[in-house]
Amino acid sequence: MKKLFTLMAIAITATSTFAASEESINLRDEMTIMAQRLNFANRANSAEEFQNSMAKFIDAAEKSKATIPPKWNGDTSQFSGYQQGLQKVIDIATETSELAKQNKLSDAKEKLSELPELRTMYHKLYK
Questions:
Q1: How far is CA 80 from CA 13, 68, 74, 75, 98, in A?
Q2: Where does the secretion signal sit in this chain (predicted)?
């Protein structure tokens, strides 16, 4: 599982050799933060540490949700589906944070394992 999250973090942080616009840098940065925080949450040893990582994850996801991917060149026809996908991610992250708040860290980490599947599915659709 740790290897999966590490690979996910590496894949997200991989960058193109081409110059990117400011908007794409911001979206890429938010996605990188999400991957890092997911990895940190999975390695958390306390509920507080887990919640801190998830709060930063959710913040980055909210920012990403408000940003049209630059590769779309302004075409917003898919944007509502993209936002719905990120909302599902945010909802799961919120649930995990609530579980951690109730001192159910192992349950929170188990619920967190749903995110890689969503990531894969939505990246195929919208990346």
A1: 25, 10, 13, 11, 26
A2: 1-19
Domains and CATH numbers, the chain: 27-126 (1.20.120.10)
Could you tell me the pTM of the whole model? 0.79
Distance, in Å, from the CA atom of 62 to the CA atom of 84, rounded to the nearest integer, reads: 11
Length of the chain measured in residues: 127
Residue 126 is encoded by which pair of tokens? 């919208």
> Is 123 annotated as contributing to ligand binding?
yes
Residue 37 structure tokens = 């925080």
Q: How far is the C-alpha of 79 from the C-alpha of 50, rounded, in Å?
A: 30
Q: Is 54 annotated as a binding residue?
A: no
pLDDT 10s digits, 81-100 = 999 999 999 999 999 999 99
CB 36 within 8 A of CB 63: no
